[in-house]
Each structure stands twice: as structure tokens, then as C-alpha cells.
């Protein structure tokens, strides 16, 4: 049996997003070219928001990507990783982002 393993990489986060309670972008940073144009990025963000804003879970697998998210009052924090990414790493980044938002007065 042949098992294909991914090369280790420091680039484990594909994107970090902060959306408002309508799903509109407040902040977005993409670290690769999965969604190269702003139009594709915004469509992806709307899709994620529509599928996650009414759920109580914190992890989703959407469009072949691991999505870890948290909401805080009227903000939604998303950390996007590849489908083979450890969701705990993404959760830690999400928690750090949420605390950062609170420090900035955003959460």
C-alpha cells in the first residue's frame, strides 16, 4: 500500500478572514493563490458565511479546505487551512485572532 505524505511546510494557513454579521469583509489576508481575484475571494467568503453563521460548531470542511471559525458578538473570525491541515493549529490561530480583535476593540 502506498501512502502519499505532504511535505512539511510553514505555510499552513491559507487565509485569515474577519467578516461582519452580514458576511461582509472587514479584513482578509490570503497567503496563497487559491482564490487569486478579489471577486473569487468575496464569493468564497459569502459561501463560508452562509454555511457557518447559523451553526454552533467551530470546524467545517468546505470546498476542500479546513475552516475553523468563531463568532464574537457581531464578528466572525475564520482561519482557512488545507484539507489535510490539523484543525487544532487552525483553532489556535483563530483564538489568537479573536483575542486580538478584542484588544483592538473589535470583539
From TrEMBL:
Residues 12-87 form the AP complex mu/sigma subunit domain. One of its GO terms (biological process) is intracellular protein transport. The keyword ATP-binding does not apply. The keyword Translocase does not apply. It comes from the Eukaryota. Pfam families: Clat_adaptor_s. It is a peripheral membrane protein. InterPro entries: AP_mu_sigma_su, Clathrin_sm-chain_CS, Coatomer_zeta, Longin-like_dom_sf. It is found in: Cytoplasm; Golgi apparatus membrane; Cytoplasmic vesicle, COPI-coated vesicle membrane. Keywords: Cytoplasm, Cytoplasmic vesicle, ER-Golgi transport, Golgi apparatus, Membrane, Protein transport, Transport. PROSITE patterns: CLAT_ADAPTOR_S. GO terms for cellular component: COPI vesicle coat; Golgi membrane. The coatomer is a cytosolic protein complex that binds to dilysine motifs and reversibly associates with Golgi non-clathrin-coated vesicles, which further mediate biosynthetic protein transport from the ER, via the Golgi up to the trans Golgi network. Coatomer complex is required for budding from Golgi membranes, and is essential for the retrograde Golgi-to-ER transport of dilysine-tagged proteins. The zeta subunit may be involved in regulating the coat assembly and, hence, the rate of biosynthetic protein transport due to its association-dissociation properties with the coatomer complex. Belongs to the adaptor complexes small subunit family. Oligomeric complex that consists of at least the alpha, beta, beta', gamma, delta, epsilon and zeta subunits. This is Coatomer subunit zeta. The lineage of its organism: Eukaryota, Metazoa, Chordata, Craniata, Vertebrata. The gene is COPZ1.
Amino acid at each position: 500500500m502506498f501512502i502519499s505524505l505532504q511535505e512539511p511546510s510553514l505555510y499552513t494557513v491559507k487565509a485569515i478572514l474577519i467578516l461582519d454579521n452580514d458576511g461582509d469583509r472587514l479584513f482578509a489576508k490570503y497567503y496563497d493563490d487559491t482564490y487569486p481575484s478579489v471577486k473569487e475571494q468575496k464569493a468564497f467568503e459569502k459561501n463560508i458565511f452562509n454555511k457557518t453563521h447559523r451553526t454552533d460548531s467551530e470546524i467545517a470542511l468546505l470546498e476542500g479546505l479546513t475552516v475553523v471559525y468563531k463568532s464574537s458578538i457581531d464578528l466572525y473570525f475564520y482561519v482557512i487551512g488545507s484539507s489535510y491541515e490539523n484543525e487544532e493549529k487552525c483553532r489556535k490561530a483563530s483564538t489568537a485572532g479573536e483575542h486580538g480583535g478584542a484588544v483592538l476593540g473589535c470583539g
